[in-house]
Design a protein that fits this description.
Blueprint (H helix, E strand, L loop, with lengths): L1 H42 L8 E4 L2 H8 L14 E7 L12 E7 L17 H14 L5 E6 L5 E4 L1 H4 L9 H34 L16 H47 L4 H29 L5 E4 H14 L4 E3 L5 E4 L11 E4 L6 E4 L1 H18 L3 E7 L3 E8 L6 H5 L20 H11 L3 E6 L4 E8 L2
Parallel strand pairs: 7-11
Antiparallel strand pairs: 1-5, 2-3, 3-4, 4-5, 6-10, 8-9, 11-12, 12-14, 13-14
Length: 469
């Protein structure tokens, strides 16, 4: 676009200068023709090229002498008349004479006040200024003149000062090109920060569901180089995450065989307390490895997103807990009562009911969301007596709410556990590896949302917010 603007700008300058030069040359030529025309009428010499001097017939001589110029043969009947007297100059009093010109134009009366005048200006120069003025306007005037008391003559000089003789005026086109060039440069100047801001917004949301894994280099050259560098960095990051997941997966698989042998050997220990400690340590090691592997897979976003029904997912998760007798319930959303406006027929305001018994479809990763919701329910059951699940929805987001009952922890204490491998002070007797909430927070960010906690009357409430699109 910048090159286009420069091209238009160069074309504008060239057109303007060319048109100005052509019109200047045209004005000079018409001025010289007027000067030569005066001396041709005075001395009877050949008129300038393009001008024909024709004596008027006898009848037209009478009309011209009487000032009835519109009645002259060939004159436009509905025309405007401009009478131009050219006085005899002092330097030419012996051979010269004054000139009277009558200019008949279909729609124009020529102004004489702005004609150039200086001391010592000759009559020939005055006629040159008049013919130059005729050439200034695009019209084909009918001109008659006489020198002194001589006969009237018709001056046919439209090939010198008429519309057809005028050069094309490209200055209007040049002005339009200048506007286009200016608009293009302004557009480029305004779009430059917009391009950077747009890419910054895309980059900030790259971890969200459906985010691009590669960005097309568009915009100015500087931005394209930045995008190329970012693509290279993201590729390296993905390779590192994939390598980390492969290593952890391999470690988990390789530890499976010795862990199985340890379980078999632990079963041979006769002391039940010692045997239980061995089995607990083995389960803890396997759980830590599995948690780290799960966290890495969530970071990589390996699961493909799709449209899913959030109420159906919550119903299924809660039903699984209820099937095994766990105290988990799903609280249905209440209908919303909307107050209406007054009618011209009734002074009372009406009411409307918006049912919340409707499906809520989100674009996300179902397995990851199920894991996040399950982790929050497990936390609520670990630290409280029961868990209550509910759903709040608006046009932009959906909020999954898990309330526990009887938790002794506060929201501030639980939010500190979002960092990896962080556990609370009162969790020594509770199973876990310190990655559950970290995985939930990562899944929330992956879906363009967040995980927050707040204190409630019965315990602590977790709010998992995800974007709907």
């Amino acid at each position: 676009m910048v090159l286009a603007a420069l091209f238009f700008g160069g074309g504008t300058v060239w057109m303007w200068e060319k048109s100005t030069s052509d019109w200047r040359a045209y004005g000079t030529a018409s001025y010289d023709a007027g000067v030569t025309l005066y001396y041709a009428m005075q001395n009877g010499t050949a008129p300038p090229a393009g001008i024909i001097i024709s004596p008027l017939p006898a009848d037209d001589q009478v009309h011209a002498t009487s000032g009835l110029f519109r009645q002259i043969a060939g004159a436009p009947p509905t025309s405007r008349i401009t009478i131009v007297p050219i006085l005899l100059d002092v330097a030419n009093q012996i051979t010269g004479a004054s000139v009277t010109m009558a200019i008949l134009s279909p729609d124009l009366t020529y102004g004489l006040a702005d004609l150039p005048h200086r001391d010592g200006q000759t009559a020939a120069e005055t006629m040159g200024a008049i013919t130059q003025k005729l050439a200034t306007f695009c019209t084909d005037p009918f001109v008659v003149a006489r020198m002194g008391e001589a006969d009237w003559v018709e001056l046919d000089g439209n090939s010198v000062w008429g519309c057809a003789a005028a050069p094309p005026d490209r200055r209007i086109l040049a002005a339009l090109l200048a506007v286009v060039a200016t608009g293009t440069l302004i557009t480029v100047a305004l779009n430059l920060p917009v391009s950077f801001l747009s890419f910054a917004g895309q980059l900030s949301n790259r971890r969200r569901v459906g985010g691009p894994t590669h960005y097309d280099p568009t915009g100015p050259q500087e931005l394209q180089e930045i995008i190329t560098a970012v693509n290279s960095y993201l590729e390296i990051e993905r390779e590192q995450l994939a390598g980390r997941a492969a290593v952890l997966s391999g470690v988990s698989h390789d530890l499976g065989t010795p862990a199985t042998r340890l379980r078999l050997r632990a079963a041979l220990i006769k002391d039940p307390n010692l045997r239980q400690k061995f089995e607990t340590d083995i389960d803890s090691m396997a759980g830590i490895i599995e948690s780290v592997l799960t966290y890495t897979h969530v970071e990589m976003g390996a699961e493909k997103p799709r449209n899913l029904s959030l109420p159906s997912l919550l119903d299924a998760i809660v039903a699984n807990y209820q099937d095994v007798g766990r105290p988990v319930t799903f609280r249905k959303a209440k209908d919303v009562i909307v107050q209406g406006g007054k009618s011209i027929f009734m002074s009372r305001q009406g009411y409307g009911v918006v049912s919340n018994d409707r499906d809520t479809v989100v674009y996300g990763r179902p397995v990851s969301l199920q894991r996040a919701i399950t982790n929050l329910i497990e936390n609520a059951l670990k630290y409280g007596r029961r868990a209550t699940v509910s759903l709040e929805v608006n046009a932009q987001s959906a909020t999954i709410i898990i309330e526990d009952e009887g938790s002794e922890s506060s929201a501030a204490e639980i939010e500190k556990l979002l960092a990896p491998f962080q556990r609370g002070e009162n969790t020594t007797t509770i199973d876990g590896h310190g990655l559950g909430l970290t995985i939930v927070a990562t899944i929330a960010k992956l879906h363009g949302g967040r995980l927050t906690f707040e204190d409630s009357a019965t315990g602590v409430t977790a709010r998992l917010v995800i974007q709907r699109s």
